[in-house]
Design brief:
Blueprint lengths: L1 H4 L1 H9 L2 H32 L6 H24 L1 H9 L7 H26 L4 H11 L1 H7 L4 H24 L7
């Protein structure tokens, strides 16, 4: 997952100008740092409230806390980034503010999809991994086709994240295709 989440950084260096690539790397580092922090926090809080790690109730609690932590990050840094980014990091990061809402929305989707994938992977159900891998590999041709500016990169990341989440939710709801 993390190797695929970093493909966009390599492609940004090839397709964007040096300044845009630097801005995209700053957005990515901020976003993925918050992603890892929220994944860790939601795991620890869910472990406090659950006994059985293989039950559906554990999965739903884990998804709820993952969504809660990531939503807070999305609101603070994405929607209200114009106020929080300069206050926390200074004006140096002001060029990344217009793109943070799309990027953090994509990370919210990736975080929830990651929880679904890891839950089903622990149950030896590889359908979710295969579907998610296919969707994330779709990011490469989309970026190759749409790489005019940094906004295209960020929108592609958000589209891939939301598509991944939607397909995994459809799989989760449909038990017939839930096992390979």
């Amino acid at each position: 997952l993390f190797a695929l989440l970093n493909i966009d950084l390599v492609l940004a260096r090839f397709f964007l100008t040096f300044e845009d690539a630097q801005t995209y790397i700053v957005i990515s580092l901020l976003g993925k740092g918050l992603f890892l922090l929220s994944q860790f926090g939601s795991s620890k809080i869910t472990a406090l409230f659950s006994d059985q790690k293989q039950s559906k109730s554990y999965l739903y609690r884990l998804i709820f806390f993952t969504f809660l932590f990531n939503w807070i990050g999305f609101v603070v840094f994405g929607l209200e980034g114009a106020q929080t980014i300069p206050a926390l990091f200074g004006q140096k990061f002001a060029t990344s503010i217009p793109y943070l809402s799309f990027y953090f929305f994509g990370l919210v989707c990736f975080a929830i999809a990651d929880r679904l994938m890891t839950f089903h992977l622990a149950k030896k159900n590889f359908t979710f991994i295969i579907v998610s891998l296919a969707i994330m590999l779709l990011q490469i041709p989309l970026i190759v086709l749409h790489h005019e500016n940094i906004g295209d990169f960020v929108r592609t990341f958000a589209y891939i994240g939301s598509t991944n989440l939607m397909l995994l939710i459809i799989l989760q709801m449909n038990a017939m295709y839930n096992r390979i």
